[in-house]
Amino acid sequence: MHIRRTAPRPRFGRIAVAGLLAGLAAAAQAELPVEHNRIEPLAPATAERIYLTDPVMPHLVDGRVVVIDGRKMKRLAVIGSGFSALTALSPDRQWLYVATTYHSRLQRGERTDVVEVYRTDDLTFSHEIVIPPKHAQGLPIRALMQPSADGRFLLIQNATPATSVTVVDTQARKVTAEIANPGCWGAIPWPAAALRFSSICGDGTVQTFDLDASGASAGASRSARFFDPDQDPVFMQYSLSGSTMTLLSFHGTVHRITLDGAAPAFAPTWNFVSDADRRQGWRPGGFQLFEVIGDRMVVGMHAKGAEGTHKNPAEQLWTIDLAAKQRVARTPGFGTLSMTRTREATPKLVLLSGLDNTLRVLDPARPASMRKPLAVSEPMGETPVYLETH
């Protein structure tokens, strides 16, 4: 006969449970403080405030705009932006415009396109304007939606896939026109002509459109060909300095166009990629891949470039002297996908890394210092692509 002995069970487990139950009973009898929700006012916006548009590609119906204090690199707010939104700020920086799409059953059902308008002082929703269900649904870039120079009209690129531009009167809160721009892309407002905008066309020309005082179409004109779309196409990213628009080609050709007077005026083109660098395959790449600050341009560059690498993050940042027409510095690229400048007397450069979604602030006035950022953020958003500063 086999006798099995068992050790006596410890009593401290029962004692601990009893003590826990007694503690919970005492806590239940104690009166807990009442919690109150509150809204903390935002500090006044500074030139360092950043608006980061994130289409959140893993779940596109749930886009966001992340608002960031660029001085402290602190997230201030997240604004929902629906499906494949375009964003822009008014010229006076008082309003944030979000052109987006909603479906009645989230990912299906009746489609409604609207421009949502938010106050930038407290980031609260103000109102919406219904627009035709045609706005371009793609990764946001500056040329797809911009306000006119005086802020009255909002210009929105459409694609059905036929191309046109919706004109929205932000004061009357209504659509005033849909202007066809076949074979062309983008709505680039003229800086000193509130009733004029231009598009870049696939045949290498610029088409310029005029509005009347009510926002209706008042005619159009087309320029001579200024680039060869088959040999060296241009990026749709552009940078404005006064009335001068800078465009950049896939192979590093600089195009400077003055948007003033009776028609666009084209400066002679030139290329900043040397023969030695071209043999190594150095090319521009990214979304907001360059920015002009004063008489210098900073552009994201990658080596071993080929067909289809034009969106590659930057391996290096090249600083180009636009007056001397030569490179003056090459510094680390930080995987930069997009960049923009701050709107202050001595602008800073804000970078978005396509490698880890972090933001960096650089001082472009001292290219040698650009090896070490002034500030670095934690990762922001999920798949952010577009930057704008206050």
TrEMBL record:
SUPFAM superfamilies for this protein: YVTN repeat-like/Quinoprotein amine dehydrogenase
Locations listed in the record: Periplasm
UniProt xrefs under Pfam families: Me-amine-dh_H
Primary localization: periplasm
GO molecular function: methylamine dehydrogenase (amicyanin) activity
UniProt EC number: 1.4.9.1
Keywords tagged on the record: Electron transport, Oxidoreductase, Periplasm, Signal, Transport
Xref: InterPro entries: Metamine_DH_Hvc, Quino_amine_DH_bsu, WD40/YVTN_repeat-like_dom_sf
Signal peptide: 1-30
Top enzyme category: oxidoreductase
Keyword rRNA processing tagged: no
Domain of life: Bacteria
Family of the protein in this entry: Belongs to the aromatic amine dehydrogenase heavy chain family.
Protein's name according to its UniProt entry: Methylamine dehydrogenase heavy chain
Biological source species: Sphaerotilus uruguayifluvii
